[in-house]
Amino acid sequence: MPVYADDLVTVGYAQVGHESDWRTANTQNYQDVFSEDAGYSLDLVDCDNDNAAQLEAVRTFISKDMDYIVIAPIQSAGWDTVLQEAQDAGIPVIIADREIEASDDLYDAWVGTNTTNEGITAGNWLAEYLGDADANILVIEGSVGASATLGRTDGFNQVAGEHDNWKILDSQSGDFTQAGGQEVMESFLKSYDDIDVVVAENDNMAFGAIDAIKAAGKTCGPDGDIIIFSFDAVKAAFDAMIAGDLNAALECNPLHGPRVDEIIKK
Ligand code: AHR
Q: What is the C-alpha to C-alpha distance for residues 161 and 40, in angstroms, rounded to an integer?
């Protein structure tokens, strides 16, 4: 591992975008940890949820001969070629936050979240909350092809499959954004009369869904018509729970910066 007495260690971070409060906290955390005072020069590229832009950002890091490349992958598929290019250039790659479908020979480390486990935890929470009650369930999924979406969906479906009286009526992508969650919920409310539970695969989509539910003259939360829960547990989710609009939020920690720093130092 290079140790630089005089120079800063250059790190290129291909960030997903700015789609959620979780993402904002993640970006801030990298900026705090990878500071010049800490010996780093951080080149953080916000890829605006655009897969092609993210591949281009990584190729730019390779052409700049960065010391390390960190990728929070928008999509889980399609990484082999660019990872091979980084390896050929001798640049270590750390995958962070989401996972990828590629041989682990092509990157040096992964640090992130077990989202399947989050989905199972969410399902188990719902099972305990509902007891024996029947439930018509709608799912607002995250971005299509993102491991956070695939894992949460898979984990929740595993638990749902154990409950014959749970019916998943529909699931649509809200792209992990508040506007996306609102739009999907508006369409669900037009299509389904009898909604018991809404699963939002992140907090921001839940905030949008809550706005749509209220605008339709319905209520949600512990004393409302509809049970709604989400993933991340950002500060605004606690505010929504305190306000009685959100039943639960499953923690997903965005503070990966110190872990990536530790991997680089090792
Ligand atoms: O990959 C982590 C997920 O990405 C967060 O749950 C979501 O809010 C973000 O967009």
A: 47
Ligand 1, atom nearest to 22 Cα = 8
pLDDT along the chain (266 residues), means of 10: 68 98 98 98 98 98 98 98 98 98 97 97 98 98 98 98 98 98 98 98 98 98 98 98 98 97 97
Alpha carbon of 22 to ligand 1 centroid (Å): 6
Distance separating alpha carbons of residues 123 and 249, to the nearest angstrom? 12
**Token pair belonging to 186:** 């508006």
| Helix residue spans in the chain (DSSP H) | 21-33, 51-63, 80-88, 115-130, 147-160, 178-191, 203-215, 235-242, 257-265
66: CB partners within 8 A, 6+ apart: 10, 11, 12, 43, 91
